């Protein structure tokens, strides 16, 4: 395995399968569940390598171990990616640019891709391809709304241009009533 494939991490001993219990017994009876260990995680094989009483040992994540942390800044990156994803999902229900963390759809999705690429272990809940699909959906939604807005503005402009001149201080014949007093119920002279 290449050196860069291992990630500094912490894992907790947590037996979930009978095979995991057997592997744990081979390490030693004094290694108890709940013990937090420092070591290296290998994402390809899901193995966690650590030192126990001066000897190399290994846990299998999902069988007899659970990852607690994944090196510097990984937790923040997961949290930010989750936040950006929830912004996208909210935008698709309520399309308004201010709902996005970044000022544009392209910028928002670009940051999502950068966070996704920076993660040592890729999330199961979001793939790189899904980010592109989300961006496409959001752009289609924005285009649709822009067209509706433009159509509404054009209709308003047309309505204003076609509307007849209002009777601004003029009587029925178009003559000005300025200077004439009109009382309700009285006949004009």
Provide an overview of this structure.
- The chain has a five-stranded antiparallel sheet.
- It has four helices and five strands; from the N terminus they run βαββββααα.
- The protein has helices spanning 18-27, 74-93, 105-118, 128-162; strands at 7-13, 36-42, 47-52, 55-60, 65-69.
- The protein is rod-shaped, with a radius of gyration of 34 Å.
- A hairpin with a 4-residue loop joins β2 and β3.
- 42% of the residues lie in helices and 16% in strands.
- By secondary structure, the protein is α+β, with helices and mostly antiparallel strands.
- The mean pLDDT is 81.
Short description:
The protein is of the alpha+beta class. The protein has helices spanning 18-27, 74-93, 105-118, 128-162, and strands spanning 7-13, 36-42, 47-52, 55-60, 65-69.
SSE layout and pairing:
Layout: E1 7-13, H1 18-27, E2 36-42, E3 47-52, E4 55-60, E5 65-69, H2 74-93, H3 105-118, H4 128-162
Antiparallel strand pairs: 1-2, 1-5, 2-3, 3-4
Helix pairs in contact: 2-3, 2-4, 3-4
Defining key terms:
189 residues, rod-shaped, 4 helices, alpha+beta, 5 strands
> With helices defined by DSSP (H or I, 4 residues minimum), what is the helix count?
4
> What is the 3D shape?
rod-shaped
Work out the radius of gyration: 34 Å
Largest sheet: 5 strands, antiparallel
Helix-residue proportion: 40-55%
Q: N- to C-terminal separation?
A: 107 Å
**Strand order, largest beta sheet:** 4-3-2-1-5
Arithmetic mean pLDDT: 81
């Amino acid at each position: 395995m290449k050196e860069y494939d291992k990630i500094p991490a912490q894992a907790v001993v947590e037996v979930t399968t009978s095979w995991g219990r057997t592997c744990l017994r081979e390490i030693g009876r004094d290694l108890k569940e709940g013990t937090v260990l420092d070591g290296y995680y290998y994402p390809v094989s899901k193995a966690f390598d650590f030192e126990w009483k001066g000897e190399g040992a290994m846990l299998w994540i999902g069988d007899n171990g659970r990852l607690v942390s994944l090196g510097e800044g990984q937790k923040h990156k997961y949290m930010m990616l989750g936040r950006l994803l929830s912004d996208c999902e909210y935008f698709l229900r309520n399309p308004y640019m201010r709902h996005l963390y970044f000022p544009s759809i392209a910028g928002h999705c670009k940051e999502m891709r950068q966070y996704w690429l920076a993660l040592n272990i890729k999330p199961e809940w979001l793939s790189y391809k899904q980010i592109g699909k989300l961006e496409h959906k959001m752009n289609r939604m924005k285009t649709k709304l822009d067209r509706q807005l433009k159509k509404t503005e054009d209709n308003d402009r047309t309505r204003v241009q076609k509307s007849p001149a209002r009777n601004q201080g003029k009587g029925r014949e178009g003559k000005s009533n300025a200077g004439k007093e009109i009382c309700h119920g009285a006949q004009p002279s």
